[in-house]
Amino acid sequence: MTFRELALSFPNSTEEAHFEKTSFRVNKKIFATLNKNESEAVLKLSLIDQDVFNKMSSGIFRPVPNKWGSHGWTVIELQNVDIDMLKDGLRCAYDEVLKAK
């Protein structure tokens, strides 16, 4: 299953362009972006989830290296991530954005 298929498998998720990336949204808010050229994605995680995924993944998950990283935005190296960890990360990002009103 591709990143796109996983992201769109969540209820009411949509796909839209976002600058040079593809974004995945729920309630018009981005929970993930995909950069196909670099085999990376970015998820909007809570700071707690970001810390957990960073520690569990041996560098596959890491904060975005700017102020966005301090708000939970987290890079994933898609070529190295385990499918179950990717699914868990996407679920956390989706839930984080869904609960934010």
Polypeptide structure, described:
By secondary structure, the chain is of the alpha+beta class. It has 3 helices and 6 strands. A hairpin with a 2-residue loop joins strand 1 and strand 2 (21-26). The longest helix is centred in the last third of the chain and has 17 residues, at 83-99.
Order of helices and strands: HEEEEHEEH
Number of strands: 6
Identify the strand order in the major beta sheet: 1-2-3-4-6-5
CATH topology: Aspartate Aminotransferase, domain 1
Any idea what the CATH architecture is? Alpha-Beta Complex
Averaged pLDDT = 94
How far apart are the termini?
30 Å
State the helix count.
3
Largest sheet at a glance? 6 strands, antiparallel
Structural class: alpha+beta
Unreliable spans are none
Structural domain count: 1
Q: How big is the Rg?
A: 12 Å
Helix content: 25-40%
Residue fraction in strands:
25-35%
CATH top level? Answer: Alpha Beta
- Tell me, briefly, the overall form: globular
